[in-house]
Structure formats: C-alpha cells, structure tokens
C-alpha cells in the first residue's frame, strides 16, 4: 500500500490477505500498525527503505521484511549485534552452540 487512511481493523478483517506491503511513509507515522497487523496474524513488509537509519528503525520494530535497493547493507544490519537488545544477545549466546 502506498497510502492508508481510516480504521486499521478493516485491514485486519480481510481473511484472504495474509501479508501487507506498506510504504515506509505509512509506517513512520503509524508505527503501531506493525504490531496490530502482526498480532492479527498478518505479515508486514515495508518498502522502500534505503537509508541505514530507516532500516534499523524497521528492524527494531520487528517488521517481517524490508524491501530495499541495498540488500547487502540490510542483511548486515539485520545480523549486526550492535542493534540487537542485550536480552536478544544473551539468548543467542545461551541457545547457540559454538
């Protein structure tokens, strides 16, 4: 979606839709949409995120996917310890075999 106005519940109640692709401009001003859609079982993909700060913001919001012109940068950021919470890092150390 490039734009959305109205009640987010109208999107949630679409049983035939299991994922939404949202333009970053929608998500930037309505970050709660990601949580609401995911809690209803919908996947959320955000496009087009080409700036490092925006990609990190989307990672921290736990989107299901990032659509970008810079997949290598995005992959590095997704797997970077610098943006993961201390709790996440601890869990990875506990449950990852070396």
Quickly list its features.
98 residues; alpha/beta; TIM Barrel; 3 strands; 46% helix; globular
How would you describe what is shown here?
It contains six helices and three strands; from the N terminus they run H-E-H-H-E-H-E-H-H. The chain has a single domain, classed as TIM Barrel. The chain is globular. Strand 2 (43-47), helix 4 and strand 3 form a beta-alpha-beta unit. Helix content is 46%, strand content 12%.
Layout of strands and helices, then pairs:
Layout: H1 9-12, E1 19-23, H2 24-29, H3 32-39, E2 43-47, H4 52-60, E3 65-66, H5 71-78, H6 86-95
Helix pairs in contact: 4-5
Short description:
Helices cover 46% and strands 12% of the residues. With 98 residues, it is of the alpha/beta class. α4 crosses α5.
Straight-line N-to-C gap: 42 Å
Biggest beta-sheet profile: 3 strands, parallel
How many structural domains are formed by the residues?
Answer: 1
Helicity level: 40-55%
Structural class, judged by helices and strands? alpha/beta
Order of helices and strands: HEHHEHEHH
Mean pLDDT: 86
CATH arch. level architecture = Alpha-Beta Barrel
User: From the alpha-carbon coordinates, what is the Rg to the nearest angstrom?
Assistant: 15 Å
> How many H/I helical runs?
6
The CATH H-level superfamily is Phosphatidylinositol (PI) phosphodiesterase
Overall, the morphology is: globular
Uncertain runs are: none
């Amino acid at each position: 979606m490039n734009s959305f106005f109205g009640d987010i519940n109208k999107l949630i109640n679409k049983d035939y839709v299991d994922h939404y692709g949202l333009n970053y401009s929608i998500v930037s001003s309505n970050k709660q949409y990601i949580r609401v859609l995911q809690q209803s079982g919908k996947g959320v993909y955000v496009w087009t995120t080409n700036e490092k700060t925006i990609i990190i913001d989307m990672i921290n919001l736990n989107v299901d996917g990032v659509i970008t012109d810079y997949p290598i940068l995005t992959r590095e950021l997704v797997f970077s310890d610098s943006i993961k919470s201390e709790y996440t890092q601890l869990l990875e150390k506990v449950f990852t075999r070396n």
